[in-house]
Amino acid sequence: MDPDVMNPDLSWPGIVVPIAADRQELSWEGLVLEDQLTVQSYNIPANATILVFNKIKVGISIVANNLYCEVFVYHGTTVGELKAKIHADYGVDVAHKVVRKENRNLDDRATLWSARVVEGTVLLLVG
């Protein structure tokens, strides 16, 4: 088993999660499971469904601040949520700013997946 690909702590008989541990986020019934706790800490029943989200790294070039940052998000993250994360993590004012990909403004309601944002994509925050 390649330790860079699979986390043996997340392998159950017949189930393997082929996502590096640092790129996973687990969720059960809408609750994000914290890394420092075990699955047993949450008293999750045996027949429960645990969702595994794959984090992707996206670069953001913030034109007004002459700043470049990288954030970990999910394909299901919306552009608006990405802007909120940039504001929370870096203190950048995102009001009245737009996210651009390849000279195209992205709608705040669009998911990164629908905008074809993948691992390593660099976006611009302008306005």
From TrEMBL:
Domain of life: Eukaryota
Entries under Gene3D superfamilies matching the protein: Phosphatidylinositol 3-kinase Catalytic Subunit, Chain A, domain 1
Domain Ubiquitin-like, chain residue ranges per copy: 19-59, 56-127
InterPro entries attached to this UniProt entry: Ubiquitin-like_dom, Ubiquitin-like_domsf
The name this protein goes by in its record: Ubiquitin-like domain-containing protein
Lineage: Eukaryota, Viridiplantae, Streptophyta, Embryophyta, Tracheophyta
